[in-house]
Design goal:
This protein has a single domain, classed as 3-Layer(aba) Sandwich (Rossmann fold). Helix content is 38%, strand content 15%. The strands form five sheets. Strands 3-2-1-4-5-7-12 form a seven-stranded parallel beta sheet, sandwiched between helices. A two-stranded parallel sheet has the order 6-15. Helix 1 crosses helix 2, helix 5 runs parallel beside helix 7 and helix 6 packs parallel to helix 7. The chain starts with 6 loop residues before the first helix and ends with a helix.
Length: 355
């Protein structure tokens, strides 16, 4: 069974369709998604094909992927559909697409500490060369809009007196830190979009996403907190924290993130950046681990801690968390709808379905 046919996923897609404003703008259009096998991009692709299946939206969907094998696993349901098209190539190469495209969602690239340590150059290329290739295609097609998936990490370290980060703020980044290949190249990716807008008039938006999770996320050797926790629950492994677990996070379930992305793309002001985060449930990561053991007592999991005095491993951000303002996004009519507990239940159950 493909992920698309998963009951949790199908319910999520239905909820997304009920929440996106001006969804009718997508009828009879064409959409390119880069990095289409990533968690968010897979859901975006699923949702567009679901609109075709359930509401006859007649959207031409182009999924750009590096791994044909992975793509065929994730999109096996659509491979024979006339309005689904796999484009197998690296986004850092010229995008060989001759068909007209109306919207582009550029989601290619990785934030995983594993790839930050092992392939920092690849991360930089996807966010810079890849973004230029996307904008060149946008220029050729005269697209209605490009949406660039950026990160909260572009803000860097802000002044200590700032309690909430708005989209007009800029902080410091240490360009010699191993993690900086990711936020520094995301910053440049945003500026590439801005530069193409100034010089060629291409409409775009940046979305700065914070800690999204959900079905389809990579849980094996990813290195991020939520991925590792979910992996432990799914595989009957005790949850081990490499710290005292007091660091706080605010996690955003995939539904709320996808709804926000489409609200920005369809309703956002051209040239603007928007924060996407669920700041309603800030929580220490040790409490996330404990919550998972309480939600799934039948897995009989324990939470253990390693030496919290050890330095943080390479590839992880050393910048203290500051709350993101989502007021700009909320002005478009968005509000987070899925609680952390409900999101955790859905995510784990999506992996366990059929077990």
């Amino acid at each position: 069974m493909s992920l698309y046919e998963n009951k949790i996923v199908q319910n999520d897609l239905s909820e997304i369709s009920q929440s996106v404003k001006n969804i009718e703008k997508l009828k009879n259009t064409s959409v390119l998604i880069t990095g289409a096998t990533g968690m968010l991009a897979t859901y975006i692709t699923y949702w567009l094909m679901n609109l075709n299946e359930k509401q006859n939206y007649n959207i031409e969907v182009f999924a750009l992927v590096r791994s044909e094998k992975t793509a065929k696993q994730k999109f096996q349901t659509f491979l024979q559909h006339s309005n689904f098209h796999l484009l197998v190539q690296d986004v850092t190469e010229e995008i060989k697409l001759t068909e007209q495209v109306d919207y582009i969602i550029h989601a290619a690239g990785s934030a995983s500490p594993h790839f930050i340590v092992n392939d920092p150059v690849g991360i930089i290329k996807a966010n810079t060369l890849g973004t230029m290739n996307v904008m060149e295609l946008a220029r050729k097609c005269k697209v209605k809009k490009v949406l660039y998936t950026s990160t909260r990490e572009v803000y860097g370290k802000v002044d200590d007196n700032i309690l909430e980060i708005t989209e007009d703020m800029v902080g410091k980044l240490d360009q010699m830190d191993s993690r900086s290949c990711y936020p520094e190249s995301k910053r440049m990716g945003e500026n590439i979009c801005k530069s193409y807008s100034l010089q060629y008039g291409i409409p775009f938006n940046n979305v700065r996403i914070a800690h999204s999770f959900g079905p389809g996320m990579t849980i094996n050797k990813d290195g991020r907190v939520m991925s590792d926790f979910i992996n432990c629950v799914v595989n009957h492994q005790d949850i081990t924290l490499n710290s005292d677990g007091t660091a706080k996070r605010a996690f955003c379930y995939i539904n709320d993130c996808i709804i926000a992305i489409w609200m920005v793309l369809l309703n956002g002001e051209d040239g603007e950046s928007y924060n996407i985060a669920n700041e309603t449930e800030e929580i220490p990561i040790k409490d996330v681990a404990l919550l998972l053991t309480q939600i799934f007592p039948e897995r009989h999991l324990k939470v253990t801690f390693l030496d919290s005095k050890k330095a943080k491993p390479e590839g992880y951000s050393k910048i203290e968390r500051v709350k993101l303002s989502t007021q700009k996004l909320e002005n478009l009519g968005w509000k987070p709808q899925i609680t952390l507990e409900e999101g955790l239940k859905r995510t784990v159950k999506s992996f366990l379905e059929g077990e």
